[in-house]
Amino acid sequence: MKRLGRDAAELTTLADHLTAHGRESPLEGPDAAARKSNHGGMPPVITGGIPHTVLSQ
Fold it and tell me: Does pTM top 0.70 for this prediction?
């Protein structure tokens, strides 16, 4: 409570403002990225013929 507002009235005002402006939830961002096939992260390290080379030795 100390970081967002000084008292309950200020927190209520902030909550009303955020609700009125339709802020997205934290889970909507990853869902939107997945719909765009943007999963983030590092690319796979083992690609192409590496597994075949390792298994044939």
Answer: no
